[in-house]
Specification:
11 strands, 1 helix, four-stranded antiparallel beta sheet
Length: about 120
């Protein structure tokens, strides 16, 4: 079992940047594929990005391609999401997710979730 704690959210103006972190503890971090999801008020949770155990494979949602970068540090047991050129529509609660299966991470059914960190983008 793995525990996930997100941090780094906050308020930023459109065009700005934020970096989210997700600290993992419990089972060996390197066994898990990781991902980021987000949920805006009144909307369903949506996939943002995912990364394989080694970090060599990543997948990004079309809405964030070229602006967001997912990465991981397997020494620090931490997942990151660098968010640049933020838009108002990026406003949401951002969740870290983990699973042994890369497919489950990308398909919205990972076994483990963090509690979320709020990102608010204003004009």
């Amino acid at each position: 079992q793995v525990q996930l704690v997100e941090s780094g959210g906050g308020s930023v103006q459109a065009g700005g940047s934020l970096r989210l972190s997700c600290a993992a503890s419990g089972s060996p971090y390197t066994r898990y594929c990781m991902g980021w999801y987000r949920q805006a008020p009144g909307k369903e949770r949506e996939f943002v990005s995912s990364i394989s155990e080694s970090g060599t494979t990543t997948i990004d949602a079309d809405s964030v391609k070229g602006r967001f970068t997912i990465s991981r540090d397997n020494v620090k047991n931490t997942l990151y999401l660098q968010m640049n050129s933020l838009k108002i529509e990026d406003t949401a609660m951002y969740y870290c997710a983990a699973d042994y299966s890369f497919s489950r991470v990308g398909l919205g059914s990972p076994s483990y979730w963090g509690q979320g960190t709020q990102v608010t983008v204003s004009s």
